[in-house]
Amino acid sequence: MGGLKDELLKAIWHAFTALDLDHSGKVSKSQLKVLSHNLCTVLKVPHDPVALEEHFRDDDEGPVSNQGYMPYLNKFILEKVQDNFDKIEFNRMCWTLCVKKNLTKSPLLITEEDAFKVWVIFNFLSEDKYPLIIVPEEIEYLLKKLTEVMGGGWQQEQFEHYKINFDDSKDGLSVWELIELIGNGQFSKGMDRQTVSMAINEVFNELILDVLKQGYMMKKGHRRKNWTERWFVLKPNIISYYVSEDLKDKKGDILLDENCCVESLPDKDGKKCLFLIKCFDKTFEISASDKKKKQEWIQAIHSTIHLLKLGSPPPHKEARQRRKELRKKLLAEQEELERQMKELQAANENKQQELETVRKKLEEAASRAAEEEKKRLQTQVELQARFSTELEREKLIRQQMEEQVAQKSSELEQYLQRVRELEDMYLKLQEALEDERQARQDEETVRKLQARLLEEESSKRADLEKWHLEQQQAIQASEAEKQGLESERSAKERALQEAMEQLERLGRERKQALEQYEDVKKKLEMATSKTKSWKDKVAQHEGLIRLIEPGSKNPHLITNWGPAAFTQAELEEREKSWKGKKSTE
């Protein structure tokens, strides 16, 4: 809804700016009432005279006050607009209000109808800021499309020359300047009025009426199945077909959505270049004039259905939006560049001020240096005069010194002779001292050797005494150990004696146990013989009774009632007895 409001505002702006102003520089209330009434009529907005009169009352809050016309326009008209009005009728109403006051009186190559279409195209391509202008990039885009439709060659150099001569104080052209530019034929030389009008009409159909493709084709009827030539017009979501290209007699529509598809058909029934458009409830067979037109229509319809699936706007609107976004991006980059240039310029000015300050400081330093140099030269002259006086005095002193030096030289020679004698004496004394030192070193060495021998002797003596003590202690320990072994031996003898006694006692007890074992064995044999006779008696029965005996180590037999009461050997013996009984019977 915001995009529709912006488009309506552009046309309304042209109409509003064309209204006459009174002596105070404001638009009269009567003109605003007429404009508002006409807008409500063409936009199919309910007209509210009471609200209109209330808003246009004579006080400081009305539309003719400093608040302007926009609050009323937004509240009572634009916010109520639905997309059910005739846009061409709306644009023509606004055009009618502004054309007489603004259109140039000089003869143009285009008609007023063509100028109206250029005016509408301008509103579509202009920037979203007021006063409305069209920037050079959009002018180039429009002129290129017109030249392409007219079949001419685009003259880029001519347009570049036109941009160079463009007024630098303006960012673009107004709508009336654009109409004059196209109408004077500057970029359509060699083209007649009809060709230019045809080009403007085709560009108008594409950009404003959203006509993606149009042309004559044959359509097969749904009832009589006859073929009829129709003028087809393809838009973003519909294909309309008319009796002729004047669009006065509309015969029907083909509604397109993302579920539709288009297919090529083989030639049949004497018709060539056939293709099929499948929709939700109907199928349309169409015949193009040639294979090229057939392929163009199939491609155009396929692209339209693809855009519906993606939810994308028509190609020319999407391209316009991309160009605007690119211009905004370039403008932002340019503003950023200008900001950086301003920062660099400010930094450069600061550097210039710093350099100027440094230059002044250098000039002051140079003047101070010149004064100091002047003072230095004056001081040098004074020092030079003083030095000359001092030099004369130094010459006299030097002569006196030379005489004293000669005297001192003879005294020095005598002194040196005495020094040489003393050096000889010193060398001899050094040799004597060296001999004495060597003798003392030898004496010290001998003394250290004697002391070391004495220490070794005392150490060996201490070791001998230590070994003697250890020997005494070992002897004492051996005596104590001997006594301990003796007592241990006696204790072991006593223990051995006791063990022998216990062994004899155990022997006796063992003998008694053997005797008892023999008695028990005899009793057991007697009990076994008695038990065997009783067991034989019991074995004559069916095995229902079994004596309680110690369990056998062999595996037990298992019956349906649990563990068996007899062993495997007993079972075999019973089987043998049963077989014997059966054989005797």
TrEMBL record:
GO CC field: cytoplasm; lamellipodium; nucleus; plasma membrane
Coiled-coil residue windows: 316-530
Localisation: Cell membrane; Cell projection, Lamellipodium; Cytoplasm; Nucleus
Domain PH: 210-306
Pfam families: EF-hand_SWAP70_N, PH
Molecular-function annotations in GO: DNA binding
Keywords, in A-Z order: Cell membrane, Cell projection, Coiled coil, Cytoplasm, DNA-binding, Membrane, Nucleus, Phosphoprotein
Function: Phosphatidylinositol 3,4,5-trisphosphate-dependent guanine nucleotide exchange factor (GEF) which, independently of RAS, transduces signals from tyrosine kinase receptors to RAC. It also mediates signaling of membrane ruffling. Regulates the actin cytoskeleton as an effector or adapter protein in response to agonist stimulated phosphatidylinositol (3,4)-bisphosphate production and cell protrusion.
Record PANTHER family: SWAP-70 RECOMBINASE, SWITCH-ASSOCIATED PROTEIN 70
Quaternary structure and partners: The SWAP complex consists of NPM1, NCL, PARP1 and SWAP70.
Name this protein carries in UniProt: Switch-associated protein 70
Species of provenance: Callorhinus ursinus
Organism phylogeny: Eukaryota, Metazoa, Chordata, Craniata, Vertebrata
